[in-house]
Amino acid sequence: GDSVTQMEGPVTLSEEAFLTINCTYTATGYPSLFWYVQYPGEGLQLLLKATKADDKGSNKGFEATYRKETTSFHLEKGSVQVSDSAVYFCALSTRETSYDKVIFGPGTSLSVIP
Amino acid sequence: EPEVTQTPSHQVTQMGQEVILRCVPISNHLYFYWYRQILGQKVEFLVSFYNNEISEKSEIFDDQFSVERPDGSNFTLKIRSTKLEDSAMYFCAPGVRVPQNTEAFFGQGTRLTVV
Fold it and tell me: Are A15 and A114 in contact (CB under 8 A)?
């Protein structure tokens, strides 16, 4: 079945460091890919998305490129801030999946220290 | 402006009691999904609901769970007899179909604590 794998956390970075969170997926058909963010004590927010190969999603300084050849959607940010501390979930949705449910990766906890 | 409002934001209930979690979408969505996130763990799909009936459910969604749209607007998840392991965040996600996929808009969630 469809699935998402992402790097294990927690990840701890100093402010202004470069961030990469790896994400790979397995899917039938052609999925759309998402990154969701969950700040402490809050719900899920869509951070960015890409719907076809080579698309780049971007938001709030974060970027991820849909790589079909490597089935990856790695999240990057050039300079993290303390306010970026959160759990990041890579996810996919595919029209071939029954009624397009979103399948989440296990999440990666990020802590940014001053 | 959120696409969906979930109520209550936090509910504490005794084991064995029934709980009803509510989801009020802003727009007239046809697709609804419920997800569960046990504290510190991954977000798990529970059930999808389309055209007023369940279209898919996971293994987690056993006979203790039910969903309905009682008034054509609100969307509810009922747990008939709660267990300690039902303690989790529950997210409602109405969805709209766009050409590539269905975009799901997640609510802020309801934190359910079973004691």
Answer: yes
User: Which chain B residue's Cα is nearest to A96?
Assistant: B101
- Identify the three-state secondary structure at position B64: coil
- Phi and psi at B43, nearest 5°, equal -85, 125
Residue B95 CB: number of other CB atoms within 10 A?
25
Please tell me which residue of chain B has the smallest CA distance to A45: B106
Q: Is B25 on the interface with A (CB under 8 A)?
A: no
B105/A13 Cα distance (integer angstroms): 30
- Give the other-Cβ count within 10 Å of B16's Cβ: 10
Q: Which residues of B touch A46 (CB under 8 A)?
A: 105-106
Cα separation of A34 and B105, whole Å? 12
Residue A28 tokens read as 């039938």
- The residue to which tokens 């719900």 are assigned: A43
Determine phi and psi for B5, rounding to 5 degrees: -120, 130
Interface test with B, best of A44, A47, A49 (most B CBs within 10 A): A44
**Average pLDDT of each block of 10 consecutive residues along chain B (115 residues)?**
81 97 77 88 89 87 91 87 96 70 75 97
Closest by CA to A33, choosing from A75, A79, A78, is A75
CB pairs under 8 A between A and B: 65
- In chain B, what is the straight-line distance between the N-terminal and C-terminal CA atoms, in Å? 34
